[in-house]
Amino acid sequence: MSLNKPLPKPMTMTTEHFSEQDTSSSQQPSRAAENITVTVRVRPFCVAELRGNHGGGGPTAEVWAVLENDSRIRYADDYSMRERRAAVDYAYDHALTGSDNERIYTASVKSLVQSAMEGYNGTVFAYGQTSSGKTYTMSGTGRQPGITPRAVEDVFKYIRENSEREFLLRVSYLEIYNESIRDLLSPEAIDLRIHEDRKRGVYVSPLKEEIVTTPSQVMRILQRGDNQRHTSSTDYNARSSRSHSIFQIVIESRERAPTAPRSPEGRKPSLGLGFKSTKAVRVSQLNLIDLAGSEKASSDAERRKEGAFINKSLLTLGTVISKLTEEKGAHIPYRDSKLTRILQSSLSGNARVSVICTISPSFSNVEESHNTLKFAARVKKVVTKAHTNQVMDDKALLEKYRREIGELKSQLLLTTAIAAEQEQSDGVGGFDEFMSIDKGQHAELSHLLEKERLKHEEEMVEMSMVRNALKERIDQLTKLILTSQSINNTTAAAPGVGSSFLTSPLSAGARPSSMHSQSITGRYTVETTADGTVLEFPKEIESRLARKDTMVRQLQSELEAQQEKVSLMKMALQRAAKGEAVDLEKTLAKVEVEPPREKFLIEKRASIMNLNGGMLWQDGALLNGHSRTPSKRHSKIAPEGTTGSGSQENQGSAAGNDQGEPGSEVLRDDGRLAIDDEEEDEELLMDTPWNRSELLSLRQAKRELEIVVIEQEKKLEDMVAFEDSEEFQNLVIEMEEQREKILVMEEEREGFKATITDLKNMIRKLELSRVDGGGVGGIPLLSSYETISVLPSSSSTTSLSSTAAGPNRTQELEMMLQRERKLRMEEQTRNMSRVASLEAEVTILKAEQSVRDLHVE
Ligand SMILES: Nc1ncnc2c1ncn2[C@@H]1O[C@H](COP(=O)(O)OP(=O)(O)OP(=O)(O)O)[C@@H](O)[C@H]1O
């Protein structure tokens, strides 16, 4: 196989980030200039207010009259008369009472979400005194989901219903607490900075963004962020938000286009095929903001400090709004608070904005409520003119992912074509020629064919691993890109997720059944660095995959070692069967005693690593390694007879290798093992003490598996809370499977040992039979072989004890060889299925990783 294009890049990569005012973006249709949408909501009396004495007229006497149909609010007549207050009367876009969050969402936010999906920035914020109902309005409750979950639901609904576009969504969540910005999705990241440049406008960094593919995934992220948010019990609210929070959804979308690489019939697709789309990507932001509430002095010092920061930033917000409406061209003090600085882009024009002002119905809060109404009236005057932002290059993640998918598909096509070619050439001709040759050539050819077959199988395994890696990456990226079809599939596969999540409580305990598939994609996060670069993080799974690759490589080395060892034995037996002089003791000694050639083994493993694992994460490593190594090995394969026939060349080369330098061993006429310089890689394996390396490899593999088991056990401890879940049960099963694998490997090791013992015994018996027969072949009787009679043997000794053994011996050896071949083939099959099962295990581990992510959430 030879490919000339690097395979999938490492999962961690850097990308350029879309910028709102990017020079490469073109500004597309604008909406007509419009005022900020303002809604005032008067919440119902709370229990404390109903019980307390809140001034004249009784605790529940009406202060505010809300005329919902006219979208007006004013003092209630009774109150106005009783308190001798001058009449006030405000008109907004909507004035609402009650607890129905659906109504307020539909009236104030729904259309804004729709336009965010169409490419216009959108910002919604809730403003009001502490305990007036901002969080209730934005987040809601299990029974009354607020604006944020409803917006999330509508975002996915829009994707479901718009089959002509594809989308990529990512979310971030931050809070401003005591004038310090904190990443709620990465709580260790505190005091984030606000940056501004010509390209990107105003932005916060480094800020973690997570790519999302389902509503429930977004809700879990929100829940995770909410758990990190600063809230406290105050004099006014048992669970008061002490910070401003900003939840942002970045929506990238593009008209759908055929993505598959098109190659002319019968021609290989060229690598590096560009998929530069002519369709621009629309990028917009939807900001959902829950402000902290203004408040009167608190009895607690800490709360007072928080309150001071909150009040100051809200005051600045008020000032900014005033300036925006009152003075044309005046300096707008956005920089006076973090809140106004972050909202600068939205407030200064390029966004549709909806403000929900919440007020308490209570007499005791009438002044604060009035202030809120005045703020709302000012906001109403602010004019914005949102326009869509379109990006023509791959600064949008969507474009970048599409390109990568296209390129990966090209590579996949190419590897498939190469595999097919190999399959074809494998079966071409040879049978007639094979039948017509004589017996000696026959054996030689069989040996060659066997070697070729093994090499071919190895290449096919490698090829299949390459293809699997390509398919997996394509799959991962494809899942991140949302289409109406993919959303519908997810919903169909997981009833209860998506359209119906609003009816279930938004608690972390409400886990959807599609957790597995979601979390595979959910492991993608992107983080924006200070220079605007977006980093993609595939999290811990990479290291797990790498460890699994190591195990696969280990097993392959082990398999190779076994094959080479057997071929060494076989060769010695064949020589002996032909009556040639073979120093069997030396052969055995080579196998058993000599120290391993670590350097060679390391190189061998490294080359396999390049062939298999390297391709996953290192550009070019796989393909270069793969195209070079097998062909080199192929050219080095020497027909069995040529090395052992005692040719002058071989003897000559052997003479130059007396010092045991690396080189392949050949059997010389004098019965000694010689080294052939020209037979480097392929034959060098014979010089390795396989018993030891085999045991070491197996032990190493066993240790690897044990480490995995220990880790799984540790994880299980951490997951006590999920003991009843299906995921938990899966982990238990997986652990059991790991244990079973260890047992199977131990059994196999025993099997290998038994095979080796058998082979040794056969050789020794053969030696004995020669000695009995008068030293056929001139092999001296070795004292160590005197103990042979007590060795256990599964073979018949009769055929070997006769001097007439010529044909019988040959027959027996042929049988032994056949048996050996069968064993090797079984072993090969076993190892291939083990590789397959390890791949399956990797998939399970991914699922397990996502369970762990959810557990952290
Ligand atoms: N429209 C409403 N219907 C029913 N209950 C409401 C409504 N609005 C608020 N509440 C309840 O009033 C209490 C205070 O509301 P909430 O926490 O949303 O206020 P807040 O403005 O976010 O306060 P803070 O600024 O202190 O965070 C909560 O118990 C909430 O459930």
From TrEMBL:
The keyword ATP-binding applies. Pfam families: Kinesin. Residues 35-382 form the Kinesin motor domain. ATP binds at residues 128-135. The keyword Transcription does not apply. PROSITE patterns: KINESIN_MOTOR_1, KINESIN_MOTOR_2. Residues 1-33, 222-241, 254-273, 622-669 are annotated as: Disordered. InterPro entries: Kinesin-like_fam (IPR027640), Kinesin_motor_CS (IPR019821), Kinesin_motor_dom (IPR001752), Kinesin_motor_dom_sf (IPR036961), P-loop_NTPase (IPR027417). One of its GO terms (biological process) is microtubule-based movement. Residues 12-30, 230-241, 645-656 have a biased composition (Polar residues). GO terms for molecular function: ATP binding; microtubule binding; microtubule motor activity. One of its GO terms (cellular component) is microtubule. CDD domains: KISc_CENP_E. Keywords: ATP-binding, Coiled coil, Microtubule, Motor protein, Nucleotide-binding. Residues 545-594, 728-755 form a coiled coil. Signal peptide: none annotated. It comes from the Eukaryota. PANTHER family: CENTROMERE PROTEIN E, KINESIN-LIKE PROTEIN KIN-7C, MITOCHONDRIAL ISOFORM X1. Belongs to the TRAFAC class myosin-kinesin ATPase superfamily. Kinesin family. This is Kinesin-like protein. It comes from Mortierella polycephala. The lineage of its organism: Eukaryota, Fungi, Fungi incertae sedis, Mucoromycota, Mortierellomycotina.
